[in-house]
Amino acid sequence: MLRTDTLEDTELGDDHETAAVAATVPAATVPATIAPATTVPAATVPAAPTAPADRGELLFQRCLWCGTPAYRRSFCRACGSVAFRRERSAGDGVVVRRHGQVPHHTWFVAMNEGFNLLCQATDAAPVAVGSRVSVVRDIAPLGQGLPVVEPTRPPTSDRWW
């Protein structure tokens, strides 16, 4: 016979009579304990918005192992870790590349915290690469999932791009 090092039923605190009765009675016939009726208070609606998107905040992730910033990633692109902490972005960045095709107006923006972000523009005015932008809403008005940015000042001439 094969010997195992597991605890027997008696060592676990169950006696054989209780275990035998529990094994023969189906679970559906055993009456359940009914808790006394209690009233549940109605949910209150918070006065101030609680979600970061409702407050217009832009959150990004920072790797707990190497400190690399990222935006909506499953794992760190530098070390492969899946451990992140959320941080609040100041919302300022520089346009690195733009796609001005109507109706999208999407731009790649290098944020000051060190991560790149695909954004949507608020207006159709042409914006040069190197222009400073700031995030005005976390999600586009039509719900495309892209943050919305607007230009803050024209590009500086000392930039090489």
Could you characterize what this model shows?
The chain is mainly β. It has a domain at 54-153: OB fold (Dihydrolipoamide Acetyltransferase, E2P) (Beta Barrel), CATH 2.40.50. The chain contains two helices and eight strands. It has helices spanning 16-24, 52-55, and strands spanning 59-63, 69-70, 84-88, 92-99, 106-111, 116-121, 132-137, 148-153. The strands form two sheets. Strands 4-5-6-8-7 form a five-stranded mixed β-barrel. A hairpin with a 4-residue loop joins β5 and β6 (116-121). The longest helix has 9 residues, at 16-24. The chain is globular, with a radius of gyration of 29 Å. The termini are far apart. 14% of the residues are buried. The model is unreliable at 1-14 and 45-54 (pLDDT under 50).
How is the secondary structure organized here?
Blueprint: H1 16-24, H2 52-55, E1 59-63, E2 69-70, E3 84-88, E4 92-99, E5 106-111, E6 116-121, E7 132-137, E8 148-153
Parallel strand pairs: 6-8
Antiparallel strand pairs: 1-2, 1-3, 4-5, 4-7, 5-6, 7-8
